[in-house]
Amino acid sequence: MVRTLNLYLDSELSYGWWEASLIAVKVAGNGVKHACNVRRWIHTYLGTSRLPVHNYGWFCSSLLEDEYLAEIIQLHLQEIAKDNYIHAQDIVDFIDTPEMKEYMGTKHTKISVQTACHWLWKLDWHYQKKKTGMYLDGHEREDVVAYRKAFLG
């Protein structure tokens, strides 16, 4: 912000507002999007006299920290996995049911598909081709047994 204002307010230079912000962020190794952010931050500061603060490293909690909720979702996914493939939209739809809305309260009743993808990853569900059982000499393959234990219970 200071670099942009220095370039813009310098009477010996003839940079406009946009040019000053772009040069300042390029020198710092950033791109055009960051220049837009710097201009917005300066406008906010001029209007409110408050400097913007970053939130890097702030702790963000997940609803999945609720063990009961994670278990309910796991059970629902296992039921779906018996007959079909699992999609992130399945979690979105499950959270949108009246029972889940009642359990979660009014604050958290909808999640995005991207959040559902993140939850699938945190619950150790990964995208892979579904393996079929193959029997050799009357015994099931070990990887198929492990797959069934992990995903089908």
Spell out the key features of this protein.
153 residues; mainly alpha; 2 domains; two-stranded antiparallel ribbon; elongated
Helix and strand arrangement:
Blueprint: H1 2-9, H2 17-27, H3 32-48, H4 67-83, H5 88-95, H6 98-104, H7 113-122, E1 135-136, E2 139-140, H8 142-151
Antiparallel strand pairs: 1-2
Helix pairs in contact: 1-2, 2-3, 5-7
Can you offer a commentary on this structure?
It is a single chain. By secondary structure, this protein is mainly alpha-helical. The protein has two domains: 2-48, no CATH class; 66-151, no CATH class. The protein is 58% helix and 3% strand. The protein contains eight helices and two strands; from the N terminus they run αααααααββα. The chain has helices at residues 2-9, 17-27, 32-48, 67-83, 88-95, 98-104, 113-122, 142-151; strands at residues 135-136, 139-140. Strands 1-2 form a two-stranded antiparallel ribbon. α1 (2-9) crosses α2 (17-27), α2 packs across α3 (32-48) and α5 packs across α7 (113-122). The longest helix has 17 residues, at 32-48. It is elongated.
